[in-house]
Amino acid sequence: xxxxxxxxxxxxxxxxxxxxxxxxxxxxxxxxxxxxxxxxxxxxxxxxxxxxxxxxxxxxxxxxxxxxxxxxxxxxxxxxxxxxxxxxxxxxxxxxxxxxxxxxxxxxxxxxxxxxxxxxxxxxxxxxxxxxxxxxxxxxxxxxxxxxxxxxxxxxxxxxxxxxxxxxxxxxxxxxxxxxxxxxxxxxxxxxxxxxxxxxxxxxxxxxxxxxxxxxxxxxxxxxxxxxxxxxxxxxxxxxxxxxxxxxxxxxxxxxxxxxxxxxxxxxxxxxxxxxxxxxxxxxxxxxxxxxxxxxxxxxxxxxxxxxxxxxxxxxxxxxxxxxxxxxxxxxxxxxxxxxxxxxxxxxxxxxxxxxxxxxxxxxxxxx
Length: 368
Known about the structure:
single chain; seven-stranded mixed β-sheet
């Protein structure tokens, strides 16, 4: 295996060499769709310290807190006269670039790009300020070719993007089976085929892959094509929980507009409460948002099982972020990172305390 390099660099190499950027969950695929859309605000609503807040997220079910929060006006309600300018992204690296450039202030994003953005900037670019979602990742296979987990050896398995969260998870799982795979090329006892989630179902139908370790809704799309879920990643984690989406903010924006950040977090907590209390309505709202963004709603046979496999929560599950970083290091995709200070959960805990909810913990990786 070649020497470890920063994961962000490896991603850029891989993408430029071959694949279009992925379509999502922890990261789905234009690098961004910055249409400049601003949410409507109530007449006479009072502005906070900023005229607007620029938020980014993926058009994907694991980012449903943002999808539903914008769709139902739950985020805007907390912001008063401060408007939301929303941009959608299809890959983590492009969202991190937007955050660094000031094109967005706050973003819903997966753990791997959060780690990469933080370490690449030597801890100066972002903070994770909340959790958002857990779960929603599965290994789906062709049941005619793969009858059991041991049959995965020697097969071609797709992951969304070189070095992304699911790619790291699959490489780690394969290593735990005692299989050797070169992380850079994807070649070895099992072939890792980095494939844009938008085209993974077609690759599956054509037989060019035998299965895929992918987020929702891609996993359920493969099942609709005859695939079988042979492993749910949640089963590999304590309490079946692991971070798949968290919320990040630029440190500059957090310092200059703490009231706006707190308002967004209030909106996020409110949205998660509403999603969990009204799962069917929330699923419909998320699908309506996806239809607006992509022009096509997900069919029931896809969205129903996908929705059930995702948990929406405020806890960032910080200990699982540390574990995911360890997996990337073991795979040779990331140099040993210093993640101390990646979390600032004080604003979130203030919101949670005001609602008589339990505070969340940074697992030793907080700013204080």
